[in-house]
Amino acid sequence: MILFALILFANSFAYCMNDSIVNYYSNGKIESVIRFNGEIRDGEALFFYPNGNIKRELTYVNGIISGTVKEYSESGMLKELYVIVDGKRDGPTSYFDENGVYLEDRFFVKGKLQRVLEERSQPPLPPSEKKDITGTETPKSPPPPKPVKDKKQKTESDNFGLPKEQPRSSLDDDPAFYFDVEIMPEPTIGWIAFFDKLVYPEGAQKRGISGTVKLRAFVNRYGDVEKTEVISGLPYGCTEAAEILVYYTKFKPGILRGKKVNVQMEISLNFPPD
Q: What pTM does this model have?
């Protein structure tokens, strides 16, 4: 009877299925689902609040948290999104309000807060002062020169009745993001150095994850990446690593008819890096 009682007690709090340990609250709700490799936490893990809503999503690699971590409020709304590298936060941490609406990013390097980034949902104020991934400060673009009036400019009577020439449309303040331009954007450090900076997440390395992450990058006329969109991704932090690299890289802007313009372009990043 004692042995039977112990078995019932143990089963009321945890059971093992498919190399996963499921723990329960006293109210019968699941507290956590953690994958193990032997006696070591290894793989995806889910944590829940007593009300049943998800609390945290993360991945263990050899017992250490690694890769993307998602934190949720007790109501079940996403409140934080960040990446763990070598046991520390690294890269942007995105914060959300109680309704799950994006608020801001704060950038961490090896667990230390570096700065608060502008809200991605709003376009950056030109000229951008965002630092690129090489750590150099983006110089401010000089203001456009004021037009100088020519004292010898012809008057209307000198046009012999011909209609005035209409001003041509300017690309200087065009908000559109072009697909096809004469000169496409490229990293200021060059494509070879750009791809060399791609981080291959530890969790993906261990599992032999390989393939290509395709992103759409929106590069403004100042060479800053305003946002990225995932076309196709890979698990275990590969997609996030690709987005971090692209977002924090400074680009030479695209050129159309001799003017710097906004461009949207596709970038493919291979894992493992070449």
A: 0.44
H/E stretch holding 96: strand 91-96
Q: Which two tokens stand for residue 199?
A: 């981080």
What's the CA gap between 259 and 59, in Å, rounded? Answer: 46
Q: Residue 53 maps to which CATH number? A: 3.90.930.1
Print the domain residue range for 25: 6-117
Mean pLDDT per 10-residue segment, the chain (274 residues): 50 51 90 88 91 91 88 89 86 82 78 58 48 52 56 45 45 79 94 94 93 96 94 95 95 92 96 89
Tracing tokens 């692209």 back to the chain, one arrives at 246
The one-letter code for the residue type at 93 is: T
Residue 215 lies in a domain: yes
Beta carbons of 58 and 32 less than 8 angstroms apart: no
Q: Which residues pair with 269 in a beta bridge?
A: 213
* Sign of CA pseudo-dihedral 31, 36, 40, 41: negative
Number of domains in the chain: 2
d(CA 267, CA 242): 9
